[in-house]
Write a structure and sequence with these properties.
heterodimer; A: mainly beta; B: mainly beta
């Protein structure tokens, strides 16, 4: 069965510092992977996605993620965090069942300190 | 205007009441989904629909029903609301594997 694990519930970084949010998946085949961001009171905004091809994926807002099949990981990175990046981040994988819904991790809440 | 619109944005109701959450989309996608989000649990699938005649249960459908009135509209109903259905509810559309979410409905059941 497919699953997504985000090991870090809460991360605090200083503004301007680099960021890496971890995501591990269990899938059994080549997954379709996503990162979404949820700001307080807002819906889910797609940051980036990986379907195939280049394993380093560029997204919006300066984010990137790298698919590593050997480690079953899809970690999200940003070289320099801005205060506006404070939000909750969700990693997700498309279901292998006919529903094609998303299986989500439990999320990582990012706090940015000045 | 938003591509996926959910109404209401917030709702407080009492145990035992019937409540409907509505979702409409202008993206022209056939596939629509309802999820609920609970703190620490991420999002879980309630129901999904591939067209107006194709509706399917998701992981946590008990206590919920849905109606696909048109390609653009997909409503979620709680026939008799209970407190553990207090959550943030999201509607989404899907096209070629990518899902697009509304802003959510925050539902509180007292």
């Amino acid at each position: 069965a497919q699953s997504v694990t985000q090991p870090d519930i809460h991360i605090t970084v200083s503004e301007g510092a680099s960021l890496e949010l971890r995501c591990n998946y269990s899938y059994g085949a080549t997954p379709y992977l996503f990162w979404y961001v949820q700001s307080p009171g807002q819906g889910l905004q797609l940051l980036l996605k990986y379907f195939s091809g280049d394993t380093l994926v560029q997204g919006i807002k300066g984010f990137e993620a790298e698919f590593k099949r050997s480690q079953s990981s899809f970690n999200l990175r940003k070289p320099s965090v801005h205060w506006s990046d404070a939000a909750e981040y969700f990693c997700a994988v498309v279901s292998r069942t006919g529903a094609n819904n998303l299986f989500f991790g439990t999320g990582t809440r990012l706090t940015v300190i000045p | 205007d938003a591509d996926v619109t959910q109404t209401p944005r917030n709702r407080i109701t009492k145990t035992g009441k019937r409540i409907m959450l509505e979702c409409s989309q202008t993206k022209g996608h056939d596939r629509m989904y309802w999820y609920r989000q609970d703190p620490g649990l991420g999002l879980r699938l309630i129901y999904y629909s591939f067209d107006v005649k194709d509706i399917n249960k998701g992981e946590i459908s008990d206590g919920y029903s849905v109606s696909r009135q048109a390609q653009a509209k997909f409503s979620l109903s709680l026939e008799s609301a209970i407190p553990n259905q207090t959550a943030l509810y999201f509607c989404a559309t899907s096209d070629r594997g990518t899902q697009h979410f509304g802003d959510g409905t925050r539902l509180s059941i007292l």
